[in-house]
Design goal:
By secondary structure, this protein is mainly α. The chain is built from 2 helices and no strands.
Length: about 70
Amino acid sequence: MASARHFRKAQPTEQTRAEIEADITNSRRAQRDLQAAGSHGMAERLRQDTDECLDELADLDAGRWKPKHA
């Protein structure tokens, strides 16, 4: 998901972690809602977005996370 964290050069690790975790939670919630509504294509896109966020979180934990556009 697009997030402001990718445009900031410096921010505390815990703030970045909280933003990523919030994106994961929100994306999963929206994915379930879309599946329930029968919008399986959009739900799949949100699953992919969640996977990207999980990769970001793994990179953050490993010390490899960097903002994409800062």
